[in-house]
Fold:
Amino acid sequence: MSNPRVSVVMAVYNAQEYVSDAIDSILCQTYNDFEFIIVEDGSSDDSLNIIQAYSDPRIKVIRNKENLKLIKSLNLGLQKACGRYIVRMDADDVSRPDRIEKQVNYMEAHPDCVLCGTSYKTFGSGMTSKSIVYPSDGQDIHYHMLSNTYFLHPSTCFRREVVEKQSLKYREDFLHVEDHWFFFELLHHGVGHIMKDVLLDYRIHDQNVSVVHTAKQLITQNAIRIKIAEHYGLTFKTSEEVKEYLSFLLVMKPQPHQESSVELSGDCGIFLTLLDNLKILSDNSHNEVVVKNILRAIQKIVPLFCGFRLKDFRAILDHPLCKEAFTENRSRLWHYAKCVLGMHYDFNEILSFNHD
Structure:
């Protein structure tokens, strides 16, 4: 019997409340040529019994004798996968019926695409559902990897051939944000794409990693951000330079599902100080990619401002770094108009991040 075209990989630990919903959503896919690798990670609840109650031959259960944690379990799933494409799934989420079919069709039609994610809809007890649609353009995706990843991990599909040839795996030193670095490495070997279709329902509950391990997640996320900066040739001599760089990344663009509904105001002085420090970073960098990324970030950030007085706008737009960033544009008045029509951000709050 030939290998299935798709390997669905899902790790399970103490997910008895949700795991049957996740499994059912995969077994009911319109696309059938897949194996479903479920790594049962030593659960202490009834998860294993629920999984073993299924008799579908596509399910392959790997049972860890002890709790190895998520990263080791996922790497074990990657090792056992034999499909051309690996589809990730989490035990508390729900895939839409046509998810795998649409992702496989896209990957087949775009052989240069190594990583395909989808838009998704949040849901959970006591919360209002919200559809999240990220930019799908490959350039935006690559650029945003400096700060974070647009890809929702359980919505992704990627090429197993690339993972095998490049010996890629989830790194244990990047606990709770292991997908960010994994995707960053994967995208060295092709382009990424996020489908506009909402193909996953992402469950929000009090045991989500982003809820339980928020502080640790931020520390590790910043370690990845610094490592990515170093990859592009940006080095830091002092902890203050690190802090300024991380602060710069934090104002690039908030994650949609983390946006506040509160309208916030900005502080022109803080942003001008940040521009001064970024100008120093740009002037001292001998790597064209780093300089280009800084200028692109300024082009994206400045039009988002609103709430400053006219003279504050002039001070920002007259800053040497802004002049350099907007040199190729025909009119800086257009950027001023975007500022007036832009969004509100509290830069006092955003830039208060402390790096120890």
Confidence is low (pLDDT under 50) at residues 253-266, 340-356. The first strand starts at residue 6 and ends at 12. The first helix runs from residue 19 to 27. The chain is about 40% helix and 15% strand.
